[in-house]
Design goal:
The protein is an all-alpha fold and 76 residues long. Helix content is 57%, strand content 0%. The longest helix has 16 residues. The radius of gyration is 12 Å and the shape is globular.
């Protein structure tokens, strides 16, 4: 499957825990192309391969949904 759909920043932030979404918005002005294509798919549990140059946001794309889910769990 090729991720040919690019999601808006609003859509991406809507799938994240509110604290993570706020942090992301405060830390980064815009999303990179890999982030626009991958974050929602990863959040939905779809297998996602991100091939992009170094420094393009691949790692954050891969972990953002996981971080969001951990924050949402709020385990003491």
């Amino acid at each position: 499957m090729v991720a040919d759909r690019e999601y808006s920043k609003q859509r991406i932030l809507s799938v994240l825990d509110p604290l993570v979404a706020k942090w992301f918005s405060n830390k980064f002005r815009e999303l990179t192309p890999p982030q626009r294509h991958a974050i929602v798919n990863i959040h939905e549990g779809k297998n996602t391969l991100i091939a992009s140059p170094t420094g393009s946001g691949k790692t954050l794309s891969a972990f953002l949904s996981i971080i969001s889910e951990l924050v949402d769990l709020d385990i003491p």
